[in-house]
Amino acid sequence: MLTILALASVVLLGIVPQQSEAIVIYTGWERHALVGSDIRLSCSFFSWRWTSDDVTFSWSYRADGARDAISIFHYTGGAPYVDNKGPFRDRLEFVGNPGRRDGSILLKNLDFGDNGTFTCDAKNPPDIVGRASSVRLLVFEKVPIQAGVITGSIIGAVLGLLLLIVVIYYLMRFLVARRVFNLSVSKHGKKGKGKEGSQQRQGPTLSIGDPSKLKAAASEKKKQESRKDKK
């Protein structure tokens, strides 16, 4: 009896299909392009399973101002299919690699009317549960500078100005200190020369007032007076 139950459980487990797990799909957030240019819209997915031979990709498009989306591309059974009635029937090319979980498409010769939202969905059986991902396309005559670039430029300019102010400040301090040092050296030099000149002027006076010389002069004067008296 136990053997029969064991065999029955094995058969039942073999019949029950594997449970599907969630699949995560990735696209860009927003893309900018010029009129007349080409652009690649990327789509990839993450799945815990090995890439299945039955992997599928599908793209849909909703134009700005439109309520409903239209199908523009499918990849299934190992072959790509472009919708033959949509606005991209002659301007869409599949450039992905399903074996690497890449379902990217290339849109050619863009126009202002191509502005809108592109949605990619992917299935990797048995992983078929997941939320599609969307990317918004904006076509311009000239690609605008993004806000991040403008902010970065402003921050760079402010930092450059602050650095310039700091350099000028320390340069002015250095020039002022050098000027003060030169004036100080010049004043000390003039004082030294003045002292030497005064010492030279005072030299003869000191020699005249020398006591030994005065005494010798007085003695010589007395001798002369005594000689006069003898005569």
How would you sum up this structure, described in words?
The chain is 42% helix and 25% strand. The protein has 231 residues and is an alpha+beta fold. A hairpin with a 6-residue loop joins strand 5 and strand 6. The longest helix has 62 residues, at 147-208. The protein is rod-shaped and about 160 Å long. InterPro entries: Ig-like_dom, Ig-like_dom_sf, Ig-like_fold, Ig_sub, Ig_V-set, Myelin_P0-rel.
Poorly predicted runs: 1-18, 203-208
State the secondary-structure class: alpha+beta
Using only C-alpha atoms, the radius of gyration works out to 51 Å
Ends distance:
180 Å
Strand order of the largest sheet: 2-11-10-5-6-7
> How would the global form be characterised?
rod-shaped
Name the beta content range.
15-25%
Order of helices and strands: HEEEEEEEEEEEHH
Mean pLDDT over the full residue set: 81
Indicate the topology.
Elements: H1 2-15, E1 24-27, E2 30-34, E3 39-41, E4 43-46, E5 56-63, E6 70-76, E7 79-82, E8 92-94, E9 105-107, E10 116-123, E11 133-140, H2 147-208, H3 211-230
Parallel strand pairs: 2-11
Antiparallel strand pairs: 1-4, 3-9, 5-6, 5-10, 6-7, 8-9, 10-11
